[in-house]
Amino acid sequence: MSEWEHEPGRDTGTLPEPAPRPPAPEGGPGPAPESGRRAARPAPGGSAAPAPEHSLPRTSAPVVLVTGASSGIGAAVARRMTATGDRRLLLNGRDRKRLAGVAAASGGTALPGDLATAEGCRALARQALEAAGRVDVLVANAGIGYEGPFETMPPSVLDEVIAVNLTSPLRLVHALLPAMVRRGSGHVVLVASVAGAVGVGGESVYSAAKGGLCVFADSLRHEVRTSGVSVSVVLPGVVDTPFFERRGAPYRRRVPRPVPAERVAEAVCRAVERRQREVFVPRWLRIPARLRGGAPALYHRMASRLA
Ligand SMILES: NC(=O)c1ccc[n+]([C@@H]2O[C@H](COP(=O)([O-])OP(=O)(O)OC[C@H]3O[C@@H](n4cnc5c(N)ncnc54)[C@H](OP(=O)(O)O)[C@@H]3O)[C@@H](O)[C@H]2O)c1
């Protein structure tokens, strides 16, 4: 079994089959394709607003919205989604040029914008629905890092780390979830971090934001358990992307070793296909996370040696 394969019902938490889908509401968008699957589905009918010029053709392919798609993991998710299935990709990032490059390479539609504000998140949800009529899969991946002592962290940076890593996924889910629940299908993937499972020294606010995503997912899963909507959390360790350069502090630890963004992208796609609850990348990182929960004293002794 490879690092990416997960035994159903074990620690990666494959979700139980969802409840049968209720019929779509009158005049609603109709049944949506199952998240990330290739099977042909009926085309959505009766979408409300007329399509704007930049709209994609309304086909039965699942609509996948990926944030943080202009770089690193998000760009790799876009490439992999395109390579492995018939999907309509909506891609968000701030850097228009890089985002346009990823969109061109993956056949997706660029929806540039800043997610650090409530209006930016609302605008993205609105544009996604205008462009494609619905969102079947949300991959909330945009994120920024910060390393340094908490005491001296500039308050504006603290706000930004929380806004991008934690608040923006919550806002996007808040905007897009009701329609998924109405359709009786949909999938939310939250890209967190192992830092959100164990807490990393010098990354307290980043860890808090990612930890918040993990418990948000656990909580939300309870709420939607009979709705046909699935929630996955992907927790990468260290990934070889411009993330560290952008946060202004290189990665210095010996372990975990950086993995390519493509491995995380593969995990994201698999989490959607198998409706996995929680996926660590690489998989062995679930061990310190479990150890912290089950034997905290031992975990803290080991962690302080590796720090
Ligand atoms: N790299 C790692 O070692 C690692 C480990 C664990 C978890 N993660 C998580 O994985 C996710 C992707 O990170 P990455 O490694 O791919 O880093 P990256 O290459 O720096 O990509 C980050 C992405 O987030 C976008 N973004 C940042 N701030 C934004 C904002 N205010 N509004 C909209 N988009 C914004 C960036 O857009 P622009 O570039 O266009 O600004 C970029 O597309 C993040 O959530 C990160 O926390 C990364």
Concise synopsis of the structure shown:
With 307 residues, the chain is α/β, with parallel strands linked by helices.
Describe the structure.
The chain has 307 residues and is an alpha/beta fold. It has 10 helices and 9 strands. A 7-stranded parallel β-sheet has the order 3-2-1-4-5-6-9, with helices on both faces. The protein has a two-stranded parallel sheet with strand order 7-8. Residues 1-54 have low confidence and may be disordered. Bound molecules: NADP nicotinamide-adenine-dinucleotide phosphate (NAP). NADP nicotinamide-adenine-dinucleotide phosphate binds next to helix 1, helix 4 and helix 7. InterPro entries: KR_dom, NAD(P)-bd_dom_sf, Sc_DH/Rdtase_CS, SDR_fam. One of its GO terms (molecular function) is oxidoreductase activity. This is SDR family NAD(P)-dependent oxidoreductase. Residues 62-242 form the Ketoreductase domain.
**Relative strand content:** 5-15%
Quickly count the helices: 10
Radius of gyration from the CA trace?
A: 19 Å
Q: What's the total number of strands?
A: 9
The helix/strand series, from N terminus to C terminus, equals: EHEHEHEHEHHEEHEHEHH
Which structural class matches the secondary elements?
A: alpha/beta
Q: End-to-end distance, in Å?
A: 30 Å
What topology, given as strand order, has the largest sheet? 3-2-1-4-5-6-9
CATH topology: Rossmann fold
Instruction: Calculate the mean pLDDT score and round it.
Output: 84
CATH architecture identity: 3-Layer(aba) Sandwich
Heterogens: NADP nicotinamide-adenine-dinucleotide phosphate
Percent range for helical residues? 40-55%
Shape: globular
CATH superfamily: NAD(P)-binding Rossmann-like Domain
The largest sheet, given as strand count, sense and whether it forms a barrel, is: 7 strands, parallel
Question: What is the C-level CATH assignment?
Answer: Alpha Beta
Domain Ketoreductase: 62-242
Region (Disordered): 1-58
Keywords: Oxidoreductase
Family: Belongs to the short-chain dehydrogenases/reductases (SDR) family.
